[in-house]
Amino acid sequence: MVAIYKWYNARLSTRPILTQCITAGFLFGAGDVVAQTLSSDPALKNKYDYIRTARMWFHGSVIFAPCAIHWYKLVGTRIVVPGRPTLEALARMAVDQTVWAPVGIASFYVSMGALQLHSWDQIKEELRTKWGQTMARNYIVWPAVQFVNFRIVPLDYRLMLVNIVSIAWNAFLSWSSSTNIAQSMVTLEKAGHKVEETLSLKSEREL
Predict the structure, then answer these.
(1) CA distances from 175 to 38, 138, 169 (A)
(2) pTM as predicted
(3) DSSP state of 103
(4) What integer pLDDT is reported at residue 193 of this predicted model?
(5) I need a surface site. Which of 15, 109, 178, 206 has the fewest CB within 10 A?
(6) 91-102 pLDDT, tens per residue?
(7) Residues 56-59: contacts with CB within 8 Å, 24+ apart?
(8) Closest CA to 59 of 110, 100, 25
């Protein structure tokens, strides 16, 4: 784990944007791997959909990461409350969750639809049926994560924290783009437990 951190830190200092884009793409793809591994869909039994993982990787590295990098820089420089770090983090989180989250979730469904060559009418229907429910789940997970992110984590590492937490979230998004929200929540819960187990085992080994 230390070696990975040193590698990431070294690459971040020389090519920050490229490093964060590659990392985001990898972790978006990892989220889809989790989603497909934990899926109970008979259509995926003994058959892995590599194209679906590629779509997630593309969205994470080419669309999500470049926008997120500039977004965090914008929020970090424009929303400043001198001497009030907690209030500053709350303000940044509030803006993130009222501006970035709705646009980011909408862009995900549009991106996935476009990559699957869906018509605009199909994409609009996807947004109509899934965007609101996904936003509701977003507000269960992300406000607390982003408060910690803006309060504690240095700017260059904020996207990394989001991407790590997003392994479970991206599993949910990947499955929700292929099925309905209710089934996706099952995948989200399973993925969350899987990430917790992995982190717990890692902590025990370090102790």
Answers:
(1) 10, 15, 10
(2) 0.78
(3) H
(4) 56
(5) 206
(6) 999 999 999 999
(7) 56/28, 56/29, 56/31, 56/32, 56/170, 56/174, 57/25, 57/26, 57/28, 57/29, 57/32, 58/25, 58/115, 59/28, 59/108, 59/111, 59/112, 59/115
(8) 25
